[in-house]
Write a structure and sequence with these properties.
The chain has 146 residues and is mainly α. Helix content is 71%, strand content 0%. The protein is built from eight helices and no strands. The chain starts with a helix and ends in a 9-residue tail after the last helix. The relative contact order is 0.18.
């Protein structure tokens, strides 16, 4: 690891923890883990992918569903609401500076979630993207599991 921001930049790290605390309490737990796992996969964050797949399994989310996060659009394991949240995750994570989040994806989310729930999802997606960037930049490695 290059540096440990929790030790070297305590106030900034605490601010991200505050956002994490809010987001994790505002989105249903299973959906939150799926969103965090999807964004971490898209960002190529091995630490966060490892963490959130294990956290999800410990919550009781079946491994088959976690494996299917990579191809959620074609999987019968996801509800329409989960697919809408994961599509929103894709577009927020891969934000296109010219177009942002498409109307189609935003409207699909609006069919499944209230305005408050969409706002909470956006904050949750933004939070995991911050964590991914911290972990990747500081070269945080997942624990060796045996």
């Amino acid at each position: 690891m290059r540096m440990n921001l929790s030790k070297t930049h305590k106030k900034g790290y605490a601010a991200v923890l505050g956002l994490e605390s809010y987001a994790s309490s505002a989105v249903p737990k299973e959906l939150y883990e799926l969103v965090k796992l999807r964004a971490s996969i898209l960002n190529g964050c091995s630490f966060c992918t490892d963490m959130h797949s294990h956290d999800a399994m410990n919550m009781g989310i079946p491994a088959a569903k976690l494996f299917a996060v990579a191809a959620y659009n074609d999987s019968p394991l996801f509800s329409d609401a989960e697919r809408a949240a994961l599509r929103l995750t894709d577009e927020v994570t891969r934000l296109d500076a010219m177009h942002g989040v498409s109307d189609e994806v935003f409207n699909d989310a609006a069919e499944e979630f209230s305005e408050e729930e969409i706002g909470n999802l956006i904050l949750a997606i933004a939070t995991i993207n911050v964590w991914n960037r911290i972990a990747i930049t500081t070269q945080l490695e997942p624990p060796v599991r045996g």
